[in-house]
Amino acid sequence: MDLETEIARFKSWAAGQAQDCGEWEVEYQEWPRLRAAVDKALLKPALDDSEVELLLYALARDNECEFVRGIIEAARTNILQLARAAINHPDPDARWQIAEILSTLDETEAILLLRRFVADTDEYVRRRAMLATRKHDREFAEETAYRWVGFAHEYSRLAALDVLYDLRSQHLGHALEKLRNDPSMYVRQRVAEIEGEVY
Question: Who contacts 99 (Cβ-Cβ below 8 Å, separation ≥6)?
Fold first, then answer.
C-alpha cells in the first residue's frame, strides 16, 4: 500500500465530511489501509520531504486513536527526522504527538527538540511537551513547571502542579501555597488532592 495514495484517498473522503467536531476522523473506514501504508513507509532508513509531510498529516488526523503514533514509536526509525520537520508543522495535532514520541528517546537531540516543543505557540502542544520532559529531562521539567505556576492558562498551572508533584520537587510546597486560592476551581481541587497525599 502506497502512503501517497492512501492519504489522497483519505483527503477525498474528508472533503465530504463535516469537520466541526473533534473526532470526525474516526469515522473513516479505511484506517487499516492507511496505517499499513504508514508502517510500510517507516521501513525506509530515511524519508524524503514529501514522505515526512504525508506521515505528519497521517499522525495529525489519527489524533484520537493514536495508532499512527504507536506505529512510529514501535518502528523507532526516522523519529528525529519527523521531529525536526514537525517543529514548524502547521497542525498542532501532529506537534503534540511528536513531542510525546520524543520522550521515548533518551538521547541529546531528542531532548533538545522536545524543549523546542515546550516553547510552541499552542498551549496544548506546550503542555503535552512539558509533561513529556519528565522522563529524560527532569531538571528542565522541574524548572519549567515552577515557572508555569504563575502562567495565565489554568491547564498550564495544572500541568505544572503535576510535574512538581511527580518529581517530588523542592518547589512543590511553594507552588501549593501560591495556588491554594487560585481562581480556577480545578486548580484548587488539584492542590487539595496533592496536599491530602503529601501532608
Answer: 114, 117, 118, 120, 125, 128, 129, 132
Among the listed residues 84, 122, 123, the one whose alpha carbon sits nearest the alpha carbon of residue 101: 84
**C-alpha Rg value of the chain to the nearest Å:** 19
Q: Three-class SS of residue 95?
A: helix
Rounded to 5°, angle at Cα 13 from 5 and 62? 75
Q: Check: pTM over 0.90? Answer yes or no.
A: yes
Task: Give the ranges where 62-149 is alpha helix by DSSP (H).
Answer: 67-75, 79-86, 92-102, 108-118, 123-132, 138-148
* Domain parsing of the chain, residue ranges: 1-136, 138-199
Q: Which residue type is seen at 73?
A: E
Contacts of 48 (CB under 8 A, 6+ apart): none
pLDDT (tens digit, 9 = 90+) per residue, 21-62?
778 999 999 999 999 999 999 998 899 999 999 999 999 999
> What are the pLDDT digits (tens) for 3-22?
999 999 999 999 998 887 77
Q: Which residues contact 15 (CB under 8 A, 6 or more apart)?
A: none
